[in-house]
Amino acid sequence: MKVLLAEDDQLIRDGLAEILNREGYSVVHAGDGEDALDLFRSETPDFVCLDIMMPKISGYDVCKKMRVARPQVPIIFISAKSEEIDKVVGLEMGADDYIVKPFGVKEVVARIRAVTRRCYAATEDSTAASMFQMGDLEVFPRELRARRGETTIELSLRDIKILRLLCEHRGQALARHTIFDHCWGEMYLPSSRTLDQHVSQLRRRIEVSPRAPQIIRTVHGVGYRYDG
Q1: pLDDT-based confidence at 127, cuts 50/70/90?
Q2: Does one domain contain both 24 and 135?
Q3: Of 120 and 98, the one with more pLDDT
Q4: Are 14 and 108 found together in one domain?
Q5: Is the same domain home to 79 and 188?
Q6: What is the mean pLDDT of residues 206-210?
Q7: Are 106 and 157 contained in the same domain?
Q8: Which long-range contacts (CB under 8 A, 24 or more apart) does 84-93 make?
Q9: Residue 40: HSE in the Cβ half-sphere, 13 Å Cα cutoff
Q10: Of 122, 108, 174, nearest to 1 (Cα)?
Q11: pLDDT band at 102, cuts 50/70/90?
Q12: Residues 105 and 156 in one domain
C-alpha cells in the first residue's frame, strides 16, 4: 500500500516516513504543495498524509485539488494548527482525519491503521484483503487484526504481509531475502537482525507460546516456515 507524505519540515517528514515504513507502507515524499500534487497524479497513492502550512500551495488547496481528482482517496491532515476551528476547517475541506503536532508514535500508528482499514473496506473481493487461517489463528487483513477465540490481536500491514506469505507457502522454508523482498520491498537493504526482531515481536502477539512457536518456525541457516 502506497502513501504520499507531504511535509515541508524534513525532520518531521523523515520521522513520519520511518513510522510508515516500519508499519509496512511504501512511501513517496513531497516537501511542498506543488510536488505533492505532481506525485499524487504520477504515483496514485492509496492515501495521503498532508501538512497544511506548506510552500507554493497550502495543504488546504492541495486537499481540494486531490478531492476533485480522486474523491475517495483518504487524506490525513498533520498540522501544528491545533485550535478546534482549524480541525473543523480541515475536516470540512475533505480530510478524513486530523493529527496535531507534536504527535506520539502510537497515535499516528492508530490513525494510519484506521485509514488502512477504510481503504480495505472500499476494496471489493480483493484476495489481498481476504481472511485466512493459520492453525487456530484467524487473520483479517481488512481489519489489520487477528483473532484466537475471543482474543483480538492488533497487526500492522507488514505483519499481515509476513503471515500471508508464510501461509501461501506452507511447508516451505522461506529464505530471509525472499521475505525481505516481498514484505519490505526489493529496494530495502536486508538485515537479518531487522527481520528477526520483527518476527520476535510478532510471535509475542500471535503465538500461544512464543518460546515454542507453532505458526512462525525458525529454519536455522535459512529463514522461517509455517507448517500448517
Answers
A1: low
A2: no
A3: 98
A4: yes
A5: no
A6: 95
A7: no
A8: 86/52, 89/60, 90/52, 90/60, 90/63, 93/60, 93/63, 93/64, 93/67
A9: 27
A10: 122
A11: confident
A12: no
State yes or no: pLDDT of 27 exceeds 90: yes
Q: How far apart are CA 172 and CA 175, in angstroms?
A: 9
User: 174 near 166, Cβ under 8 Å?
Assistant: yes
Whether the predicted pLDDT of 38 surpasses 90: yes
Look up residue 197 and give its three cell numbers.
Answer: 526482531
Give the CATH number for residue 51: 3.40.50.2300
Residues 40 and 68 occupy one common structural domain: yes
How many domains is the chain built from? 2
Contact criterion met (CB below 8 Å) for 30 and 39: yes
Task: Print the domain residue range for 187.
Answer: 127-225
- Give the domain-ending residue among 121, 151, 166: 121
pLDDT band at residue 191 using 50, 70 and 90 as cut-offs: low
Q: What is the largest CA-CA distance in the chain?
A: 57
